[in-house]
Amino acid sequence: MTWFADRLLAAHARDHGDEPAVLHGGTVTTWVELDAKASAVAAWLAEVGIGSGARVALVAPATADDIAAILGILRAGAVAAPIPGGLTARETVSALEILAPALVLRETDAAVSGGPATRGQLDVPDRDPEAPAVVVLTSGTTGRPRGVVLSARAMAASADSWLAALTPVTGWAMPLGLGHVAGLGILWRAIRTRVPVEILPPTDPEALDTALRRETPAISHVSLVAVQLARVLDAAGGPPPATLRAVLLGGGPIPPTLIRRALEAGWPVVPTYGLSETASGATALRTDDARDHPGSAGAPLPGVRVSIAGADADGVGEIVVETRARFSGYVGEPGGPAAADEPVRTGDLGRLDGEGRLFVVARRLDRIVRGGENVAPAEVEAVLLEHPAIAEAAVVGRLDTTLGNVPVAAIVLREGTTDPGDGALTAHVRTSLAGFKVPVAFTRLEALPRTSGGKLRREAVRALIAGEAVGELARPGGDAIGWRVTGSGPVPVLLFHGVLSTAGQLGRLAAGLAAPGDITVHALDRRGSGSGRLGNPRPLDVSVHVADAVAYLDARGIERASAVGISYGGVLALELAARHPDRVTAVVAYEPPYGPVGDERTRDAFGRLAAAVERDYATAGPPAAARTFLCGVAGDAAWDRMPSRTRRFLEGEGDGALADAGLAGLDPEGLRRIACPVHLLTGGASDPFYAPIADAVAARIPGARRDTLDGCTHPSPITQPGIVAAAVRACLELPA
Asked: What is the pLDDT of residue 141?
């Protein structure tokens, strides 16, 4: 019989209210407190008109209040759709497009406190256990994610299957996040057995090790991906506490060498196989069996059946799972809800041994076909990880005109080891695998790109191997700035983009600047723009962007660079030169909207625009903020004139509009401190208000020069990059 998590929560609150339910950041939330918060959310949703079956999205859920929000959404009869943390603004917009929620919660505090805690559980009519309860996004590591619909039946069945297979649980550690099916699975299991959950950051192995060693409440179980286990083994440096009973491993390939290492250190690892479509795990390998079968994902969980369809002579075929925990369908895709007993065709390849243990050969989207031969990346990665110099490895396909695809590898070397060289790595792989499986090239990376849940981002690996120098630089508070390097010349140039734009959009401009071979262009995505993440979207002071730029220079070992900025990027280039004159050799700013130097009418217009963007972001989210900003600077009809594809792109940059529309922290008087050559460019066909602002800025900077590019408009650095690149190079006094 299906049970409902929110109703079981109410029973725990009634009978065991003072016991701990959630631990996070040193704060303990009891069952009665969690229940009260969930009821407050449910009451608030009812007040704002969210009814039965409506989807409610939670952006980057990671707190006890977020757990209460999920349970409150269920209590209101609605559907919880958590969106993982760590996504860029564009990825978040894409997720919202897929989910099409009736309401988006970005900060759950308002909802948690939205109704009196004394209201208690709402009188929700009996629910259909087959009705949607949660929607989880597939990881999207190799393509556009999908919204997987899971019913109350599926979530309860998964929890019951797991609990029947596991040793008794006293507490769960949750470093995987609530935006992933594994994190939600932990929550459901914890509620089922009335044990506490401790929320932990996904990339802090020391914090995880500390939590596991705490005596009260004792954490007996944890679910990790392979890279998290490797890091916690490094942090622990020895055996786990005696209270730890199971370390579930999933989320992708699990190297046998890692299993052996963990077992030798005494860690009770339990390799698993599962997917979002089966509400997390379908199989599990007992720790005792892992010693003899470290490459297996184990036997089916109680109530689950696994078979192989279309097996070849080696027994390898498609993995098929039959489980009551199966999903109902995908959001927005054709077809009605699937029957609970309909098998799940995973598309993954695997085989079963004589005792029914599953061995996963290849995930469906990872396979490489080289000249008609199938290469499983996980198999090659496992061999690479047996080399003592390699800490992490990823194998992906690269297009080849003769063979179709060939395997190439990205590796992270262990700290303190000597690079063995490509020849030695090739020989190492060849001793274990057939020649067609040996990578044709090896790329060294400082770290492999991963999702917030620790899954490998294979598309990002492919981009890095292809020679696109892209990455992210971590910044205080959990934010990041994205960077993109073009060229390899001796002259470093920082390139800053405008609001509602990204470093990627200036790719052709960067290529034009670097084409003669004398420049290396370092294009930065500011916080809130492109791949620059903002964990807490907010208006930002320009000093934050300046500090980020200096941190990037320091990280790359660049003492001084020229600064080229487009639109708001020009404002940042000027402020960087004013605040750090020792780090900037020249500035070229194209139409910088440096509002404070304008006349009173201009200053008032910028102020009204900033207020409107902040208001619309708060009430309707990033797309509305982006539209308000664009219309504010380009006219009310600008949005409607845009092609739909362009509008979708701009909607994804709403965080950038919120961050920068206020032009906060500008120091007009500080412009007089700029000591390097400065060129201010405007387009001859641009909106006329840019030229007076550029004139006013130039008047404040000793020796600044003004130039006009005939026929150019404000978007010309994107639409006419050749003209702008030539002008910028001339300003920097570089050979044509």
From this structure: 43
